[in-house]
Sequence to fold (400 residues):
Amino acid sequence: MTEQERIEAIVKEVIAGMKGTSSASPKTAASNGAIPKTSRVALLTKTEQFEIKEYPIPEIGDDDVLVKMEGCGVCGTDAHEFKRDPFGLIPVVLGHEGTGEIVKIGKNVTKDSAGKPLGIGDKIVTCMIFKDNPDITMFDLNKQNVGGADVYGLLPDDDVHLNGWYADYMVVRKGSTIFNVSDLDLDSRILIEPAAVLIHAVERAKSTNILRFNSRVVIQGCGPIGLICIAVLRTMGTENIVAVDGNAQRLEFAKKMGACATVNFKDYKGQEELANGVKDAFGGYLADFAFQCTGSPVAHSNIYKFIRNGGGLCELGFFINGGDATINPHFDICAKEITTVGSWVYTLRDYATTFDFLKRAKAIGLPLNELITHKFHLADANEALQTNLRQDGLKIAIIP
Ligand SMILES: [Zn+2]
Fold:
């Protein structure tokens, strides 16, 4: 076959495929069979106990979307809710890092929140659910993150029930943000929500004007958040990265993600010795910039010692209250003139940037998808959360 004939054959095949899908029902069509009458959910009925319940799939209104779940990450927030119910949500269907396929769509929903066409068969993620807050508007969120907004998977139970991703189906209702991410593979889609946290953190870091091309950057904490932070920095040309953690396996992964050196804090006694370890890892220099990605107050106290005079720090590790940290304002802040920013969740704009980041990360060969070390079926949600609490592996995901 000539090159020309091969191209023609491919085009014919594609056109035949398009005809095939257009003969399907335009209103409702699951790619893998009919939509059932009921959906399973993993309902957290008391601490450390999910029960699989079955609820009817409701009628879909003109502004609603019915999504078949394909995968959902387990977040540290889920683990806290599972263990202690700090948000007082029980009974609740958890799961906010989810993605799935549209199987039914109301007639008023034709585009996603970025203006991309949306229809049956498209793969989507959701972000926040709008509240009556004029400061939270689409793509005008440089001024405010979505910390105060609702998200699916952290909503109180109601008569729809299908409002978290630890379920076979979820109902996306009017007022929600929804993105068409059909061009990303499943593992990338599962990582969108945590990756958006790092896109936001790096944007916050850049606001200090200290983080530059090939700055010396220290990442403290090599859980999924710290590891994705390394990946985001790599996609923007930062190569001089030192990772700090107490777990040799995680440090190994940090190297795979592109850290040029690692420091295991367990090998050092005391703050000064550890700071010297970081300095040695940079070839005799302190860091220009640091990202603090642990929830440990001691780690927060330590990180100032890793940063040069006039350097910067982004603190993003404390997504729950981990207690007070001690610093010395004279040595750590004043005398060193360290510029510090905090970072919390993300804005909607960061979400759109995240899709591009994930494609770029894949294109330059970063092993992002290897972050998902465990996949549990929905029926094994208890085991999935226990695995997360034991800190086994990195990112845990729930699949149907
Ligand atoms: Zn999360």
The first strand starts at residue 38 and ends at 46.
